[in-house]
């Protein structure tokens, strides 16, 4: 890669015989790489602009196009370019004077002396020159070397600044001219912020982030609580670091997550330069996570490599019909970000990210518009990834609740140790430090209610199926169920419990293997509220509220009835509970549980045969229905008090 520095000076002669508003565009390989400012109503414009461009190959010509003139010329170095219009070759359109400097992007200054061959369709010219290294071009051109993502998690043991022994802390971040301020957490010495800030890194060697903590005071100057500093030169890139920083000139500790991501604005990450594409490197990584090393460094489960290729058909977030998209790749608390492609709905990033995998986590992708006006995402579970497969993932909304416009092309490789991954699933999942504040959403409420109702309906349908066996709706099925029940209860052993859970897993796997996959019916979106009318949405919300209200009342009522049974709210029912529990204790003491369950089952299966008109019931629930809930107890007390007051 090379840096090409172009100084755009002025137009030597008259551009046209009439007034014009010229500006200049530079193109390389058919893509616009720079656009100058516009000089209004001037036939002899002077720009005096300097721009630094990235050049991957020296064989691609640099095209200079003066807009408002429809002229085009192929560049030659250190010469004045005559502007020509193919349709009017006889017209004098003026000329451009350019000074071009080409330097290698990396390497020693001694390697900067190059012999370049510049080819032109009309003739050949050979120019030899010495390249110059860039100095402050990055900052002047607003081209940053990387992105510093700082997640402010929490603070511990901060200094009390108020009379009540507490503080109202907030944090200020400063890196050069960039500043951020966190929200204020009231009345605490151990605040939880969970906020994230991004800084642009201009210095290749790193820099310092100054952090100060303040106590918010209404009506007067805020109190200083301490400071700390992050030396970015000590942190490795493309990795998330958890830092516990003690406060100087104060008390307490700040907990931060810091990630340094290289930016392709000045450092293009070539897709061919990554470790998994090198057969030797890939073999070494596979050996590192082989089964023979299953119990070596159990925390090192595997590696995930994500190639963010491009996106297509993104949603326009700007008023101009364009967007400024970039992509964020997250794995647990690791968060890496690509560069921004300006004014493009079909961006190409060609970025490679590598993560250390903690199994069970998911990789989230997002294409975000500049200013966070519009955020799209997709969620990819790691176990479902096919290594090396370039796949288009449809983007969804930020909450992953529904589809949105556009797709993103990713290529993902996951190399892991199966034993370590299995052991990793048995320990608590890594806490997600940065989570958005929950908000009330009618769509989310409807979706969650539908999910709960679907789970409950599975249990209800299973209960109805079992009850149909007791009711002898199908004699053949009831006979088979009765025989199976007797055999299982009579020969029951503890190993039958995991065996019973294993059978449905094996059955589902057989269905999937045979092509009868029913999982799509389960994971499909339960509601599509966007297509419903306003009144339908209103009625749906009312139904949800009523159902939730009744369900909560039912659960709370039975819980209070059990409590009131033991509280002797109704002494007669409490005495009945004592007698029933005493009899159950004696029966369970003298009679094995196997015989009791067998007797219960025989009674349930033969009840319908003995009395076809009997009404099935649950004795325990019938008993609890006689015990009043707290609402009923309070209502009875108020009614008695009112009746006594009325008699008086």
From TrEMBL:
GO molecular function: calcium ion binding
Keyword Calcium: yes
Annotated family: Belongs to the MCTP family.
GO CC terms, sorted: synaptic vesicle membrane
SMART domains registered for this protein in UniProt: C2
Family matches, as Pfam families: C2
Family annotation (CDD domains): C2B_MCTP_PRT (cd08376)
Protein name according to UniProt: Multiple C2 domains, transmembrane 1a
Keywords of the record: Calcium, Membrane, Metal-binding, Transmembrane, Transmembrane helix
GO terms, biological process: regulation of neurotransmitter secretion
Family annotation (InterPro entries): C2_dom, C2_domain_sf
Chain segments annotated as transmembrane: 482-509, 570-591
Domain C2: 1-96, 128-247, 279-402
Taxon lineage: Eukaryota, Metazoa, Chordata, Craniata, Vertebrata
Organism: Pundamilia nyererei
Top-level taxon: Eukaryota
């Amino acid at each position: 890669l090379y840096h090409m520095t172009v100084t755009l000076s002025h137009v030597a002669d008259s551009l046209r015989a009439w007034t014009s508003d010229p500006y200049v565009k530079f193109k390389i390989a058919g893509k616009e790489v720079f656009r100058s400012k516009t000089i209004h109503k001037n036939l002899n414009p002077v720009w005096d602009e300097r721009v630094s461009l990235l050049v991957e190959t020296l064989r691609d010509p640099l095209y200079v196009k003066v807009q408002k003139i429809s002229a085009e010329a192929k560049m030659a170095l250190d010469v004045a370019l005559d502007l020509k219009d193919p349709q009017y070759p006889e017209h004098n359109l003026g000329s451009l004077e350019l000074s071009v400097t080409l330097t290698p992007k990396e390497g020693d200054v001694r390697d900067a002396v190059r012999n370049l061959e510049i080819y032109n369709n009309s003739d050949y010219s050979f120019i030899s020159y010495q390249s110059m290294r860039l100095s402050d071009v990055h900052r002047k051109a607003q081209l940053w070397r990387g992105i510093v993502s700082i997640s402010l998690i929490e603070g511990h043991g901060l200094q009390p600044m108020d009379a009540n022994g507490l503080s109202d802390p907030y944090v200020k971040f400063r890196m050069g001219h960039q500043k951020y301020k966190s929200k204020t957490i009231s009345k605490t010495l151990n605040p939880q912020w969970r906020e994230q800030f991004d800084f642009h890194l201009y210095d290749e060697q790193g820099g310092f982030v100054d952090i100060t903590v303040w106590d918010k005071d209404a009506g007067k100057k805020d109190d200083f609580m301490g400071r700390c500093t992050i030396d970015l030169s000590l942190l490795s890139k493309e990795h998330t670091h958890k830092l516990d920083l003690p406060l100087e000139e104060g008390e307490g500790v700040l907990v931060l997550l810091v990630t340094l991501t290289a930016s392709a604005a000045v450092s293009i990450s070539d897709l061919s330069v990554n470790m998994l594409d090198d057969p030797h490197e890939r073999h070494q990584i596979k050996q590192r996570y082989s089964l023979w090393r299953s119990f070596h460094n159990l925390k090192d489960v595997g590696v995930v490599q994500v190639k963010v290729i491009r996106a297509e058909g993104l949603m326009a977030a700007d008023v101009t019909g364009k967007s400024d998209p970039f992509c964020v790749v997250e794995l647990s608390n690791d968060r890496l970000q690509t560069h921004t492609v300006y004014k493009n709905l079909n961006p190409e990033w060609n970025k490679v990210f590598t993560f250390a995998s903690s199994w069970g986590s998911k990789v989230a992708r997002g294409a975000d518009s500049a200013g966070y006006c519009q955020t799209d995402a997709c969620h990819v579970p790691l176990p479902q990834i096919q290594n090396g497969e370039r796949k288009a993932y449809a983007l969804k909304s930020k909450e992953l609740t529904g589809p949105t416009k556009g797709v993103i092309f990713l290529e993902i490789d996951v190399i892991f140790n199966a034993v370590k991954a299995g052991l990793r699933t048995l320990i608590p999942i890594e806490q997600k430090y940065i989570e958005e504040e929950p908000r009330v959403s009618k769509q989310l409420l409807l979706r969650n209610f539908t999910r709960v109702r679907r789970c409950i309906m599975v249990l209800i349908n299973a209960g109805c199926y079992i009850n149909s066996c007791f009711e002898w709706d199908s004699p053949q099925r009831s006979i088979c169920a009765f025989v199976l029940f007797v055999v299982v209860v009579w020969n029951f052993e503890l190993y039958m419990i995991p065996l019973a859970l294993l059978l449905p897993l094996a059955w589902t796997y057989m269905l999937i293997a045979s092509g009868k996959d029913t999982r799509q019916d389960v994971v499909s979106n339960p509601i599509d509220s966007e297509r419903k009318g306003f009144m339908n949405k209103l009625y749906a919300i009312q139904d949800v509220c009523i159902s939730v209200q009744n369900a909560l009342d039912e659960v709370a009522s039975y819980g209070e009835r059990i409590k009131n049974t033991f509280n002797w709210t109704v002494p007669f029912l409490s005495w009945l509970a004592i007698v029933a529990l005493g009899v159950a204790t004696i029966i369970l003491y003298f009679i094995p549980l196997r015989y009791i369950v067998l007797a219960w089952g025989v009674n349930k299966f033969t009840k319908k045969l003995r009395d076809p008109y009997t009404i099935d019931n649950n004795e325990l629930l019938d008993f609890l229905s006689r015990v009043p809930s707290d609402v009923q107890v309070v209502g009875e007390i108020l009614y008695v008090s009112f009746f006594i007051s009325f008699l008086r």
